[in-house]
From TrEMBL:
Keywords on record: ATP-binding, Cell membrane, Membrane, Nucleotide-binding, Transport
GO terms, molecular function: ATP binding
PROSITE patterns membership: ABC_TRANSPORTER_2
SUPFAM superfamilies: MOP-like (SSF50331), P-loop containing nucleoside triphosphate hydrolases (SSF52540)
UniProt xrefs under SMART domains: AAA
Superkingdom in the source lineage: Bacteria
UniProt name for this protein: ABC transporter ATP-binding protein
Similarity comment: Belongs to the ABC transporter superfamily.
The organism of origin for this protein: Tropicimonas omnivorans
InterPro entries the record matches: AAA+_ATPase, ABC_transporter-like_ATP-bd, ABC_transpr_FbpC, ABC_transpr_MalK/UgpC-like, Mo/tungstate-bd_C_term_dom, NA-bd_OB-fold, P-loop_NTPase, Transp-assoc_OB_typ2
Lineage: Bacteria, Pseudomonadati, Pseudomonadota, Alphaproteobacteria, Rhodobacterales
Annotated ABC transporter domain residues: 4-241
Pfam family, one: TOBE_2
Amino acid sequence: MAKITLQGLAHSYLETPTSPEDFALQELNHDWTDGEAYALLGPSGCGKSTLLNIISGLLIPSHGRVLFDGKDVTHLSTADRNIAQVFQFPVVYDTMTMRENLAFPLKNRGLAASEINARVERIGRMIDMTDVLDRRAAGLTADAKQKISLGRGMVRDDVNALLFDEPLTVIDPHMKWELRTQLKKLHHEFGHTMIYVTHDQTEALTFADKVVVMYDGRVVQIGTPDELFERPAHTFVGYFIGSPGMNLFDAEVQGRTAGIGGAEIDLGEGYRPGPGATKIGVRPEYIRLGQTGIPARVTRVEDVGRHKIVRLDAGGTQVAAIVGEGAPVPDGGTHIVFAPGGVNVYENEWRVVPEGGEAPLGAGREAA
């Protein structure tokens, strides 16, 4: 296992890039802590796979360096970096048994037969395939193939990192939870540094210690699931994380007060945004319906079982509010207010820290 350091890392697929727009990966400086599980999360084309391939050695960056435990590996091959990588479409050797598939990377490294057998049996138990290890791999289902592929990545205990490139995309939905849970269990048991690429926020938030959110070739936030939910550093994070995503309101902010749609809202904290465009971000969980506040009109109610999603129009701004299953919902006109602690202020899409400092994470949920 290794601490992975990215220094001034940037990449363009063009030979002579002339502007930031020419870069698939904008400049990045970050340390990936030894033994932690990370998820690279973002939409297609945001730079996730580019970054993963640079870390793995499949791609040499245009600028910057990659270090493993302080050693520069920027120009080393994938094999010389001593990593294991699991891809979206698993590669399984059909002519071998599942036991032989799992043992393959160990045999290539010349380990003793007893050590190979012990490790394969341990991984077989972890992926719940002990009873079928001696069957040939031909004809396996997609989820069984991916289990073998995951197990083959985990069977070595000497790797610097384990990299996963959307490994559950081809898996049936009902199997994804099981495999994700097994992968989390493997991480807890073996403590490998893991980097997991996905566009699925549920996969990222349930798997990772830290989530790296990427947008348009740039890392816009690195944080825990709670940090991403409560304090999105960029409006894209607020929109992309959560279902529904964060509501955004154009606003004029002065100290503790925001002017939105002709109404004045108490923000609960003082803010001093700069001269850029200012917005208020409020998650649907922190929107309240009442008799005062911002005028709004209910346009649709979606009952999802545990709660209702109320869709509203607030002077042309589309708003989502989450209310309890038994809560009354007015028919037509109403007003919306924000729960204390549930407000974020943005200038030019980036979050503004309140003047008094940060409240404890979760304060908004407690107030709600």
